[in-house]
Design brief:
six-stranded mixed sheet, 39% strand, globular
Length: 537
């Protein structure tokens, strides 16, 4: 009996000791950096506390990019000294440790500042003088100031996003023009993107980052939380070979670029081989290559991406969900109408949507349709081939993951709920990549809510957590075991109007063109491999 008491006491003491140690771990705190404007090769001094006495797995990031180990001169709990890399961009500098991320401080690369302002490096930096103080997700805010530029070009507005552990990140407003209503040198009118929380907003131009100004987010009918960060290093490869023994074939290839979203932030293209013709054309990397049957080996195009991914959990009070305003319906008109892959105007789709639910609340409608599909449809991981036949799908109630996701989007759009399909891969604990599709629907003053019918139907991959193995989890929440390669239907414009185009249905990106070739081309074969997961950090 005494021995048992001693064991229990020892366990309690150990638990208390571990709890105290964990409680004592604090997120890094950043006070200042010197200099705040520097040239590659300069020494940067970073001051604060809770950096840790050794570097271990900690790092400094600037504009979302990690500073590699070779650039650090010294690392202590209060001071970090490093040499500025050559390819550093303007943006926020943060210290990242196992305990979290520090608050950010603006940093500018001297080389990005026009030479004629060399004596006054801050004179062309954008500056915010006034900003709308409060608004809701999806609504317009007005930013006034100077040096924003007469045209937006590559400039962006960044908004705050808060993670579950209390750390803050910054997300750019999406590139789609529907978010940027007006931009000139003194004024910007921009919509508040999905996931934004109350906090700082800043403007980034080619000259650098502006000062920040705070906004307050109002009228949220629920909460969103982001956690469980995983960073995937993945490679993507496609090969092309000619079967024409007499002629060479010229091919244009479109590699999808993983989109920046609230759950995918700070994406880096680590490698492109060979060098692309166009770095970013309508969210694709464009390559042009020539192939011939005389070549001994097929031509390969390879890319390596670094993709940080977060899980998301939402909680919505359905009674607080408002009807869509006319402004929102206009803003999201593309996500309400039928297109090439979402047959929401089909009469059978509209009939089925009306039979499933007569709820007025968009949130409850979306939930009822989700429950109907996972209860009544057999969803398989075995992919079908070819285009989807919507009438056959509704009649048979047998679907693969692609069919189920597209049908869900069609039913929601037919019910006047903005909805968007997402395509990519699910990464299991064995680093195996499975083609995967899920969806998001939109709620007034709240933004996009994720839905995964494949996993919600009961399909289980190796390494899934117990709390995610139930149908309720995947209505409103998704894990971090996925990589999106497209968000919505990407209707690509051909690089040459006379080119013939190849489309790959049921693939890991939803885009209308994957390959283009001219009339003179005779024959070739292509192979798009599933991604390889090189590392998970």
């Amino acid at each position: 009996m005494r021995f048992a008491v001693l064991v229990i006491a020892l366990v309690l003491c150990t638990s208390i000791s571990i709890s105290i140690k964990l409680a004592m771990k604090k997120a890094p705190h950043l006070t200042t950096i010197t200099p705040q404007i520097a040239t590659p090769g300069d020494t940067i001094y970073i001051y604060g506390n809770h950096f840790g006495s050794k570097i271990n797995d900690s790092y400094v990031q600037i504009a979302g990019s990690r500073i590699t180990t070779s650039h650090y001169i010294s690392w202590t709990d209060n001071v970090i000294t490093l040499t500025l890399p050559m390819d550093v961009r303007d943006g926020f500098l943060q210290v990242v440790t196992s305990s979290g991320k520090s608050d950010p401080i603006n940093f500018s690369n001297q080389n990005n500042i026009p030479r004629f302002v060399k004596n006054d490096a801050t004179s062309t930096l954008p500056q915010i003088t006034e900003i709308s103080k409060s608004s809701s997700i999806g609504k317009l805010i007005t930013i006034t100031g100077k040096n924003f530029g007469t045209l937006r070009n590559n400039s962006k507005v960044f908004f705050s996003i808060e993670n579950k552990d209390g750390t803050k990140d910054f997300i750019p407003c999406p590139e789609r023009e529907i978010y940027y209503e007006f931009w000139n040198n003194q004024e910007i009118r921009v919509r508040i993107p999905n996931g934004t929380t109350s906090g700082p907003v800043f403007v980034m131009t080619n000259s650098g980052a502006s000062n920040s100004a705070d906004i307050q987010i109002q009228n949220m009918p629920g909460t969103k939380s982001f956690s469980e960060e995983k960073t995937y290093e993945i490679s993507l490869k496609a090969t092309f070979a000619s079967t024409d023994t007499k002629n060479s074939n010229d091919i244009t290839v479109h590699i999808p670029i993983p989109p920046e979203t609230t759950t995918q932030r700070g994406i880096e293209i680590r490698k492109s081989s060979p060098e692309p013709l166009i770095q970013n054309y309508m969210n694709t990397i464009v390559h042009q290559t020539s192939i011939s049957a005389k070549q001994k080996n097929a031509v390969s195009i390879e890319h390596t991406f670094l993709i940080p991914v977060y899980s998301i959990r939402t909680s919505v009070i359905s009674e607080r969900v408002k009807p869509y305003s006319d402004e929102t319906k206009k803003f999201l008109a593309d996500y309400l109408r039928e297109n090439e892959i979402i047959p929401s105007g089909n009469e059978q789709v509209k009939k089925l949507a009306s039979e499933i639910t007569n709820e007025n609340s968009p949130y409850k409608k979306a939930q009822n349709i989700y429950n109907y599909l996972i209860r009544n449809y057999e969803i398989s991981t075995e992919l079908k081939t070819g285009e989807m036949n919507i009438e056959e799908l509704i009649a048979s109630k047998n679907a693969d993951g692609y069919d189920a996701t597209i049908l869900y989007c069609a039913l929601l759009r037919a019910s006047d709920i903005p909805c968007i399909p997402i395509a990519g891969f699910y990464i299991d604990s064995e680093k195996t990549a499975h083609k995967h599709w899920w969806a998001e629907f939109y709620i007034e003053d709240f933004g996009w809510i994720p839905v995964d019918l494949i996993l919600g139907s009961g399909i289980v991959y190796p390494g899934m957590e117990e709390n995610t193995k139930n149908k309720t989890f995947y209505f409103g929440s998704i894990d971090a075991n996925r990589i999106a390669f497209s968000r919505g239907w990407n209707r690509l414009i051909s690089t040459n109007i006379n080119n013939k185009k190849i489309y790959h249905p049921r693939s890991f990106a939803l885009q209308s063109v994957w390959e283009e070739y001219s009339e003179e081309n005779k024959a070739y074969v292509s192979s798009w491999e599933d991604i390889t997961v090189e590392n998970i950090y």
